[in-house]
Every structure is written in structure tokens, then in C-alpha cells.
Design brief:
Immunoglobulin-like, mainly beta, 8 strands, 103 residues, 5-stranded mixed β-sheet
Length: 103
């Protein structure tokens, strides 16, 4: 099973982030500075896209359903972050990954 959400090994902003219940990325990377995530939701269940560093949430999209697209732009410094779905139970079921921001 391919797991993508968002996809790309070294994205240039904006970063496309397609998802479905069956596909989810586990690792993304980008350079430090302004990073834009484009979250597109093709599946029926509601999802969102959030980024945190440790326990501190840095940004989140609204929860969206099939066919919707939302953008999240953050200014990120070199570090490791977690991206995930905040909908109850989704992160625990594997809807999360690591975002590595390089200098």
C-alpha cells in the first residue's frame, strides 16, 4: 500500500498534500522559511492537516470533506515537526508523519 499525505521527497512550496483513508505519507522535507501545504480531500470522511513541534500546535486547516482543498502556510525553522490529522482517533490510527525542515 502506498502511503501519501502530503507527497514529495523535497517539495518546493506550495506542497501538494492529497489524501484518502488508505494513503498517507510518513515523511516530508523542505527548506527553512515559508512553507505552504495544500491539503486536498478526495475521500468522504472529514480530515484536517495540522503541524506541531513537540506538543505545540503551529497550525491547522479546518476539517474538510470530499472535494475540498485548503492551504496552510507556516514559517518554519530548521527542526523536526509532526504533521497529523486532529480528528479524534485519526492520529492514533496512523494519520501522522515527520516533517524535516533543513537550513
Amino acid at each position: 500500500m502506498t502511503r501519501r499525505w502530503p507527497s514529495s521527497k523535497r517539495p518546493e512550496p506550495p506542497t501538494r498534500s492529497p489524501t484518502s483513508e488508505a494513503s498517507y505519507a510518513t515523511r516530508l522535507s523542505a527548506g527553512a522559511g515559508r512553507v505552504t501545504f495544500v491539503f486536498t480531500k478526495p475521500a468522504a470522511l472529514g480530515h484536517n492537516f495540522a503541524v506541531r513541534c513537540g506538543k505545540r500546535r503551529l497550525g491547522i486547516t479546518p476539517t474538510i470533506s470530499r472535494g475540498a482543498t485548503r492551504r496552510l502556510t507556516l514559517r518554519l525553522t530548521a527542526a523536526r515537526y509532526t504533521f497529523y490529522c486532529v480528528v479524534p482517533g485519526h492520529e492514533a490510527s496512523g494519520m501522522k508523519g515527520m516533517l524535516v525542515i533543513a537550513r
